[in-house]
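job 3f2a | input accepted
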Amino acid sequence: MDKFPMTLGGYQKLEADLKKLKNEERPAVIQAIAEARAHGDLSENAEYHAAKERQGWIESQILDLEDKYTRAEVIDVSKLDGISVKFGAIVTLIDEDTEEEKVWQIVGDLEADVKQRRISVSSPIARALIGKEQGSSVEVAAPGGARSYEIAKVVFK
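job 3f2a | predicted structure (157 res):
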């Protein structure tokens, strides 16, 4: 069983999702199945079949989240510091061609969300940044061609 890195915030979200499934979703679907059963003939009862399908989905989600929960290696980013990029760092990059500024946090694979400016530690840009120091230039292979960035700032929160 391989461990994988995760921020404390990601771990807490995973824990909250698991609790919601176990304490809210599971009891609600059990209640829906009981109500559908009370309507009689199960072979033609669409509500019953939908509830059973939902129950299967919920149970598979619970198993998946429990597996991730037990294999997560939680890293408290607030206890990290320094000027070199590592897991959990919030990195401010400046595109050397366009002078456009971008801010990314390097997180675990399960926490990555581009809309929230969180990139996976295994992504090409994160792999190019890891180990580099503030003020360094980095070249990243991108689908549209190589891009060069300057690491303007490295912060740990």
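job 3f2a | The beta strands are 4-7, 72-75, 90-95, 101-107, 118-120, 137-140, 147-155.
job 3f2a | closed
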